[in-house]
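If it is no trouble, might I ask you for a protein's amino acid sequence along with its backbone structure tokens?
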Amino acid sequence: MKPSTNRMMTRIKSVYMFIQEKGLVTTQELVDEFGITPRTIQRDLNVLAYNDLVHSPSRGKWETTRKKVKISS
């Protein structure tokens, strides 16, 4: 795997775990927490949503789904 792909996957995993820990979070909270652009966080959220791991109950807010996930280190 390319180093950039590995970095992206690590970041997406961190975003997922942050949402799971906090419950309901805003896109802006994620931008602030991870220090990345709103566009980058939106791409990460799109990956998570595509895989049915997060959903947006209202515009700009995110929470995890009930899909079972096995997180490896």
Notes: The domain at 1-62 is CATH 1.10.10.10 (Arc Repressor Mutant, subunit A). The CA atoms of residues 1 and 69 lie 22 Å apart. The mean pLDDT is 93. The chain has one domain: 1-62.
